[in-house]
Amino acid sequence: MSPSILIYRIGNWFYLNRMSYISKLFSYLNRLLFSVWLPSSAIIGKNFKMGYFGLGTVIHSATKVGNNCQINQNVTIGRNFGDTKVPVLGNDVYVGAGSVIFGEISIGNNVMIGSNSVVNKSIPDNCTVVGNPFRIISHNRSKKYYELDNNIKKIKEIPNSEIVHYFDKENLITSKFNIVSVIYKNYKCTIKLPITFLERVVGISRLSRRTFRLDKCNVFVSESFLILIRKYKVYSYNLKTNELKETLKLKNCRNILHQSLCKNRKGELFFGEYGHNNKRKPVNIYKSSNNGQSWEIIYQFKSGEVKHIHGCYYDKYEDKIWTLTGDFDNENILMKSDFNFIENIKIGNGAQTFRAVSIIFRPNTMHWIMDSPLEKSYHVIMDRKTLKIKKKQGFPGPVWYLKELSDGYVLAASSVEIGEGVYDNYAHLFISDDLQSWTELTKFKKDKLPMRYFKWGVIAFAEGEQSRKSFALFFEALCKVDGKAFIYELDD
Fold first, then answer.
1. DSSP code per residue over 231-258
2. Which of 152, 436, 472, 492 would bridge with 462, disulfide CB 3.0–4.6 Å?
3. 3-state per-residue secondary structure call for 331-352
4. Do both 89 and 221 map to the same domain?
């Protein structure tokens, strides 16, 4: 509980016990300490939160606020001129910074009000609204945004694992620092990737591994070979001979994103460079026809065309490779290519709507969830024939990773970053059974370490066939689970 809310609760106790003069002292104390007007006479429910202690926020003394609500900084909730009543907010309401809510109106349950919105009319349940004057942009907002379901269970922790690269009923590939642990088919081994003496010293601590990104590692399976990527180098590991060899040096890519290397029906492998690339140098896509033992540049984005590549994905319905790029305006596209990248069709106008990390293929449609900290992220559906898109449900932050489960469900995980498109301090886990609506399963709070130096708050998935009865999650920069991995299940 933040100090400003604690002061309100104490003052409200005095108010409810008919000691209004004493209760007013706590209202003025909040104003003095935190520049927030939060009268002790206001009725505010459980699990109430305020961004930045409510800095600059003014709430009318007769306001009623339900449970599990969050009101951010510089918000005004008050009475319209001539009205005798003030707004009533339901449960699970989120009010973005700078919003104004006034008049004899009611805000329904599970409503999100975007930053700088002006609201002077009632809003029904499960809506998302934005703008001045406000407009409703969604009528099917995910329920239980602040209230967690109890149907997700942690089965067990995967020991000595910062990243889970592959997981199914019989196989498990994980890594911690430069150590990769492999249980795959009939093979069981431990791989030590090369590091310097200084890295060995610095890498002793999880905190320093986060700071210097020494935990970052990619492992992909192809037949009896592993493809490993760490610190600008690509390796091939032969599970039969236990031979590790370096196959490629990357210039603009330290590591790629999880689940972002793909294999087509011919067994050919594809991945693209992912990195800071502040100078916007050319960005390469690599192809291997021999299980990652050698690589060739199959395509190159020109200098200044994109920042980096989020992933390459095989589409079994069209027998094509899709490449997703980012990050800023004019850099976000979806490119459909043949296996030799001779025919390349670029889709999208570069806007944040086309900024995605993961993609789901269906016979007639394609689905992604925006990965944008710059604006609100939505589930986007594209028709394969017309290439027309429509935005569906909104999310509380950028969504990096999606995971298709073997029993028809899809998981999605939002991240905690810096930007207007990040609405709270939690990484959220969602599930869908129809790719139309999403329900929140749980959320994990971002830890207090600065994000630019100690990573964004991220939930990630592993490759491999998993179901809602057994799936793996691993975490970065989230309270109590940072640098850890667990196996979860969902109740019926």
1. TTEEEEEETTTTEEEEEEE-SS-S-PPT
2. 472
3. CEEEEEECCCCCCEEEEEEECH
4. no
End residue of a domain, out of 111, 138, 165: 138
Same domain flag for 179 and 57: no
Lateral strand order in the sheet of 344-350: 308-315, 320-326, 332-337, 344-350
Domain housing 404: 152-490
| Residue 147 covered by a domain | no
- Co-location of 316 and 381 in the same domain: yes
In this structure, the answer to whether residues 211 and 340 fall within a common structural domain is yes
**Is 431 in the same domain as 313?**
yes
Same domain, 235 and 322: yes
Domain end call among 138, 165, 194: 138
Tokens at residue 254, please? 């330290």
In a domain, 38, yes or no: yes
The tally of CA atoms less than 13 A away on the side-chain side of residue 8 is 24
- Nearest Cα neighbor of 240 from 287, 178, 167, 291 is 291
Q: Do residues 334 and 456 share a domain?
A: yes
Domain-located, residue 146: no
Per-residue pLDDT of the chain (492 residues; tens, 9 = 90+): 788 999 999 999 999 998 988 999 999 999 999 999 999 999 999 889 998 889 999 999 999 999 989 999 999 999 887 777 899 999 999 999 999 999 999 999 999 999 999 999 999 999 999 999 999 988 877 644 333 344 788 889 999 999 999 999 999 999 999 999 999 999 999 999 999 999 999 999 999 999 999 999 999 999 999 999 999 999 999 999 999 999 999 988 999 999 999 999 999 999 999 999 999 999 999 999 999 999 999 999 999 999 999 999 999 999 999 999 999 999 999 999 999 999 999 999 999 999 999 999 999 999 999 999 999 999 999 999 999 999 999 999 999 999 999 999 999 999 999 999 999 999 999 999 999 999 999 999 999 999 989 999 999 999 999 999 999 999 999 999 999 999 999 976
* Angstrom distance (rounded) from CA 257 to CA 273: 9
Could you tell me if 39 and 65 are in contact, meaning their C-beta atoms sit under 8 angstroms apart?
A: no
User: Do 209 and 320 fall into the same domain?
Assistant: yes
Please report, as a single letter, which amino acid is at residue 125.
Answer: D
Number of domains in the chain: 2
Dist. CA 457–CA 444, nearest whole Å: 9
Closest CA relative to residue 368, chosen from 357, 359, 378: 359
Percent helix, strand, coil in the chain, to 5, is: 10, 40, 50
CA distance 264 to 299: 16
Q: Are 366 and 359 in contact (CB under 8 A)?
A: yes
Q: What CATH number does the domain containing 162 carry?
A: 2.130.10.10
Orientation angle between helical segments 20-34 and 3-16, nearest 10 degrees: 170
Residue 333's identity, in one-letter code, is I
